[in-house]
DNA sequence: AGTATCATGTAAGAGGTTACATGATTTT
DNA sequence: AAAATCATGTAACCTCTTACATGATACT
């Protein structure tokens, strides 16, 4: 029952177990066949990660009773695991997240519903919007100052980063409309 | 003179040495103060990475002669290092790159000029465009099939990914105009 | 006198990659 | 009969993170 924080992969696995139990193989297939392919499907990453989650009491495993043949181990979230995931998805958004962990941020958002934290979604988007706006200002200031002396391909790469963050911002603003507005009293 | 391929960090360091020699500290500052902040500025990552590059013959180092005080080690690219970087930036673009290494891809593009491979830029953008278009089709097909049964935040996260790739695609198409067109004979 | 900045490094530990091992079942 | 797929796991290796160590110079 060690309680060290899972890695991004660990949190991804917890999130994928939200709808119900699954085997290591099932989880790997998700990384192979869906847009979650940015995660490695290597058994050398997934099986040890599941073992760590189990050691930490966040999941439990049992051999699948429906097949008496090749062993198939089913993993299921525990209450502790569900709580841990809920805490993870509900964290406030920091500049750090936006600068170097956009993937993690989007994963957190994706799991809000499953973790029973849909109510946090509009706040999440609002926080993201604010953080992105601040970072975009920084990027624009940097580009205005250093752009003119940066070689063409370097400058274009910077602009690509800028456009990418602008796309995230537009998405965050538009997506807020998908949730009921909070009344201002 | 071991010749194992440098990591993304290693390649970033090689690229940052293109304009001229720099110390480990100088390089760290770039990761602290510029949009390359997605790289860690930790000394525990950078100094060992520089040592590996030196062992591989891709950089050389000497103590900065201009300060007789605190030791300051200046790293400089070797011919082998420049060649290695050139080979890295000029690699053909794969689906894998687009799915799980967009950062690496943009870094390769950013260093094209410095590596003396500006001529590759329009081809790079064209290849990227084609690869992105193919992957976007996959994403749209996935969304059309699984979107309707995916919980709201999950679906929105998928859409965010889609918008991000669309932004990359627009950038790749628009940026091609920055380079002289190749005549069709 | 104390804090911030310059500057390089190491040690312990965690986690990922690659490759291998094993073997049953299903498809061709 | 062979190949692909289902399914879990381990071992060696590499790199990164976190934290510590060290000490000079510059600023307040």
How many DSSP helices of chain A? 8
What's the β-strand tally of chain A?
3
Strand content of chain A: 5-15%
List the helices and strands of chain A in order.
HEHHEEHHHHH
Helix-and-strand structural type of chain A: mainly alpha
Largest interface: A-B, 38 and 38 residues
Oligomer: homodimer
Give the rounded overall mean pLDDT of chain A: 94
Largest sheet composition of chain A: 3 strands, antiparallel
Q: Helical proportion of chain A? A: 55-70%
Estimated radius of gyration of chain A: 20 Å
Alpha-carbon distance between the two ends of chain A: 45 Å
Secondary structure blueprint with pairings:
2 copies of one chain form a homodimer.
Chain A: H1 8-16, E1 22-23, H2 24-33, H3 43-55, E2 59-63, E3 73-77, H4 79-89, H5 95-100, H6 102-110, H7 121-146, H8 152-175
Antiparallel strand pairs in A: 1-3, 2-3
Helix pairs in contact in A: 1-3, 2-3, 7-8
Chain A binds a DNA duplex (28 and 28 nucleotides) through helix 2 and helix 3.
Characterize the structure shown:
Two copies of one chain form a homodimer. Chain A is mostly helical and 185 residues long. The first copy, chain A, has helices at 8-16, 24-33, 43-55, 79-89, 95-100, 102-110, 121-146, 152-175; strands spanning 22-23, 59-63, 73-77. In chain A, helix 1 (8-16) packs across helix 3 and helix 2 packs across helix 3 (43-55). The radius of gyration of chain A is 20 Å and the shape is globular. Chains A and B meet through helix 6, helix 7 and helix 8 of A and helix 6, helix 7 and helix 8 of B. Chain A binds a DNA duplex (28 and 28 nucleotides) through helix 2 and helix 3.
């Amino acid at each position: 029952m060690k309680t060290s924080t899972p890695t991004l992969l660990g949190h991804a696995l917890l999130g994928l177990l939200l709808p119900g139990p699954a085997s290591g193989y099932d989880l790997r297939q998700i990384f192979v066949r869906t847009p979650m392919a940015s995660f490695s499907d290597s058994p050398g990453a997934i099986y040890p990660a599941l073992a760590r989650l189990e050691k930490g009491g966040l999941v439990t495993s049992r051999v699948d009773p429906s097949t008496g043949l090749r062993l198939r181990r089913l993993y299921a979230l525990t209450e502790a695991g569900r709580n841990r995931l809920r805490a993870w998805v509900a964290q406030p958004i920091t500049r750090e997240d936006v600068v170097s962990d956009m993937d993690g941020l989007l994963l957190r958002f994706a799991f809000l519903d499953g973790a029973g934290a849909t109510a946090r979604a509009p706040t999440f988007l609002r926080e993201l919007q604010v953080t992105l706006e601040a970072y975009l200002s920084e990027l624009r200031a940097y580009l205005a100052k250093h752009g003119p002396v940066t070689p063409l391909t370097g400058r274009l790469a910077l602009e690509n980063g800028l456009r990418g963050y602008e796309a995230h911002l537009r998405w965050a603003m538009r997506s807020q409309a998908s949730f009921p507005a909070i009344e201002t009293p």
